[in-house]
Design a protein that fits this description.
The complex is a heterodimer of chains A (about 425) and B (about 300).
Chain A: H1 10-23, H2 36-50, E1 54-59, E2 62-67, H3 90-102, E3 110-111, H4 112-123, H5 134-147, E4 150-155, E5 158-163, H6 173-182, H7 186-193, E6 203-206, H8 216-227, E7 230-238, E8 243-256, E9 263-269, E10 274-279, E11 283-291, H9 295-305, E12 322-329, H10 335-344, E13 349-354, E14 357-364, H11 371-375, E15 381-386, H12 389-405
Antiparallel strand pairs in A: 1-2, 3-5, 4-5, 7-8, 7-11, 8-9, 9-10, 12-14, 12-15, 13-14
Helix pairs in contact in A: 1-2, 6-7
Chain B: H1 9-22, H2 28-38, H3 47-53, H4 77-87, E1 114-116, H5 129-144, E2 148-153, E3 159-172, E4 177-183, E5 189-191, E6 195-200, E7 216-224, H6 229-236, E8 241-246, E9 251-259, H7 263-271, E10 277-281, H8 283-298
Antiparallel strand pairs in B: 2-3, 2-6, 3-4, 4-5, 7-9, 7-10, 8-9
Helix pairs in contact in B: 1-2
The chains are: A alpha+beta (about 425), B alpha+beta (about 300).
Chain lengths: ~425, ~300
């Protein structure tokens, strides 16, 4: 098939965008060897969409393509462009503009036959006029009714079509600019921005993980499933086995990280009777299934578990929790460390031991999830006590390895 | 649901061309300009040829539109549902604009559907009237390029008065805070929540003080891919301008560009990865890591 910058299916480009943006060290030959042409097409598309954000590096292994974007200065999120590349037929675009022109005002209502007849008047003047049969137009109208831009009204045996009223958004410019970057499924805000008068946003964003953009469709489908309290079927890439399995889940809540950009679905896996976390970037093809009668009860059970979840790992029962305790020392000028403990702790408590020592204590499902955070206090940790002894030993062994890495404690270091 | 041609740059660009064509004396050059401004870099190869050849019979030979009105499209249900969701976000109070009435629309998501689980707990008071009033005054000052004078409590608890030109706002989801970006004074930004009073400044300066330029620096990391460190590191630092290289199947190099004022934050973020990330360059950054580790060793943790 000839190359086109428009695409029908987002999945393939989603995988390439992730590779180029998150990693960016593979050469052409390291991608699937059977589909070198596919690689070339996807790279060309991304170049067309993202322009200067695409970078190239020539190395001994070949040319490497990567996306280098400082999301603090790149506004609006450049990855939104990929969502605006959906392919369509010549008939689709022509029908779109003529139908909405015929139904210009919400007061106008027309039957299918009237619409088809009127359309011929638009197209008749052309040398080789396009023609649309009733079934094609009916299908498009039905599609637009599902999208919410056309409404269908039955009167006896007749169906009338009319457009939905316009919505005034001119006073929402700043709010849409803000939430298109700061709310889930921000790409929808970007669609709205496209219809606003051109303007420069007054907002920029720090610690901004635009990586999440690629998973917008999965996220929207999961939200929809939660709204309707339904089961879903979802294809999930298991990282350990590196194979895709279809899972049947009850989606309960999306856990979003502001510190690494990962998005996880917390869901009930009925077959295993477990509360599990699934990465959205490993998921695809979310299909809504039947309603789940237990949805509210499952959410309530999750709410009971949440105070003991540091990250995304949790269980239904809080019977077996792990206790985490560590002490830090601070000098008179370092009260900001106490503030750090207070504002960064997600559960547990901070207590003052004496003028220069504070203790953090928590009971959590998974101590291992806390280790990276505890390491951010290195230089002042005076005591550690984890009920999970394996985790404590791991923390201490890692610390010894860090000393060696930097030539402290007799290691070779630098 | 989200991936639809209704939102494509093609539909959007053609709508702009047809709207321009509805006015008088439209030229091909103007259409080309619209394609360049609105669509992708290779879209020019498709859009105008399709319109001119009659493959998309929406323009006459003289570029007159066949449509009877400038093209418009109502909001889709997805857009309305998203708007309904943001209308229920507490941060919406900042904007003081009544969102469109969407009584018959289900929100796409509510606060019960998601949680930002690692956001800091001392976020800004987005629903506080004084905070909102300061945001509005500064927003107007940004628009009108007017100077303001503020009184604020700095991080040491001292009250300071500053006048400056506000240039924009910067929001951090991690901190859940808004900062005012400033020029014409010696500070680059102020935390909006620390402002205790805020007025337009009607004086004439002087504006001698230069806002310091941000120093852009680079750090080189070596990643050892154990315990899934490669993926964790690459995701964690994804928001920086960066470049990665593979050394062998086990080791990778990552160059990150960062703003100098964020150096301490970057030090602790790197420390959080333990022995799987080692700073190679510059020596000054290595020294910052070593300093912390030496201090930790002195804590005699057993």
């Amino acid at each position: 098939m000839a190359y086109s910058e428009r695409i029908k299916n987002f999945e393939k480009i989603r995988a390439y965008m992730r590779e180029f943006y998150v990693y960016g060290f593979k050469s052409r030959t390291e991608y699937d060897k059977k589909s070198a042409r596919s690689y070339d097409d996807e790279r060309r598309r991304l170049e067309s969409w993202l322009g200067d954000d695409m970078r190239f590096a020539q190395t001994a292994e070949g040319k490497k393509v990567f996306l280098s974007i400082d999301s603090r200065t790149a506004q609006p999120n450049p990855l939104y462009k990929a969502w605006k590349s959906k392919s369509f037929t010549d008939g689709d675009i022509v029908l779109h503009f003529i139908l909405l022109d015929l139904l210009y005002d919400p007061e106008i209502r027309m039957t299918l036959a009237q619409l088809v007849q009127e359309m011929d008047k638009y197209l008749g003047a052309f040398e080789h006029p396009l023609t649309f049969d009733e079934s094609t137009v009916r299908k498009k109208l039905k599609e637009y009714a599902q999208e919410g831009i056309i409404c269908m009204e039955k009167e006896g045996r007749k169906t009338f079509y009319r457009r939905m009223p316009d919505t005034e958004l001119s006073n929402m410019t700043d709010a849409i600019d803000f939430f298109s970057e700061a709310a889930p499924c921000g790409v929808v805000g970007s669609y709205l921005q496209d219809n606003l008068d051109q303007h420069a946003s007054i907002f920029s964003f720090k610690h901004h993980y635009i990586t999440q953009t690629m998973d917008s469709e999965v996220l929207a489908m999961l939200f929809d499933a939660m709204c309707q309290k339904r089961y879903v079927l979802v294809d999930n890439l298991g990282k350990r086995a590196n194979e895709v399995k279809t899972l049947r889940l009850v989606p309960l809540k999306i856990y979003i990280s502001a510190q690494n950009g990962r998005q996880n679905l917390l869901a009930f896996h009925e077959k295993a009777n477990r509360l599990n976390a699934y990465r959205l970037d490993y998921m695809s093809k979310v299909r809504l299934e039947e309603p789940c009668e237990q949805f509210d009860a499952l959410r309530a059970a999750l709410a009971k578990a949440e105070p003991h979840m540091w990250g995304v790992n949790g269980r239904w029962s809080t019977k077996y929790l792990e206790r985490v305790e560590f002490d830090v020392k601070i000098s008179d000028e370092e009260t900001y460390i106490v503030h750090r403990l207070e504002r960064e702790k997600r559960c547990g408590r901070v207590e003052r031991l004496d003028a220069h020592h504070y203790r953090y204590t928590a009971e959590v499902f998974d101590t291992n999830e806390m280790l990276p955070w505890i390491r951010t206090f290195l230089s002042r940790i005076t005591r550690l006590h984890f009920s999970n002894r394996t985790a404590e030993n791991k923390f201490k062994a890692d610390l010894q390895a860090m000393y060696r890495l930097y030539g402290i404690d007799g290691g070779e270091g630098l | 649901m989200i991936f639809s041609e209704l939102y494509s740059v093609y539909y959007h660009t053609v709508a702009k061309i047809l709207a321009r064509a509805a006015q008088s004396h439209a030229t091909e050059q103007e259409f080309q300009q619209l394609v360049m401004e609105t669509a992708f870099s290779e879209s020019a190869l498709t859009i105008l040829p399709a319109l001119k050849s009659g493959r998309w019979p929406l323009l006459g030979k003289d570029f007159s539109p066949i449509l009877r009105h400038p093209p418009t499209m109502p909001l889709t249900m997805l857009e309305k549902r998203w708007l309904k969701s943001i209308a229920e976000d507490p941060r919406m109070r900042l904007f003081c604009t009544p969102p469109p009435i969407l009584d018959d629309v289900e929100p796409l998501f509510t606060r019960a559907d998601y949680k930002i689980y690692d956001q800091y707990a001392d976020g800004d008071p987005f629903e506080d009237e004084t905070y909102i009033a300061h945001f509005h005054l500064i927003r107007e000052a940004i628009r009108t390029k007017s100077p303001v004078k503020i009184t604020m409590t700095n991080r040491y608890g001292r009250e300071i008065r500053v006048r400056f030109f506000p240039k924009g706002f910067e929001y951090s989801e991690k901190d859940d805070k808004i900062r005012i970006l400033a020029s014409g004074c010696r500070y680059r930004y102020f935390n909006l929540a620390r402002v205790t009073s805020c007025f337009y400044y009607h004086g004439h300066g002087p504006w001698r003080e230069e806002t310091p330029e941000v120093q852009n620096r680079e750090v080189l990391l070596e990643i050892v891919d154990e315990r899934n460190a490669l993926e964790r590191v690459m995701m964690h630092f994804a928001h920086f301008e960066k470049r990665a290289e593979k050394v062998d199947n086990h080791r990778y190099l990552l160059r990150i560009r960062y703003d100098q004022p964020d150096e301490t934050e970057l030090v602790i973020r790197i420390l959080s990865f333990g022995p799987f990330v080692k700073v190679l360059e510059p020596a000054s950054f290595v020294a910052l890591i070593r300093e912390r580790l030496i201090a930790q060793k002195g804590c005699e943790l057993r």
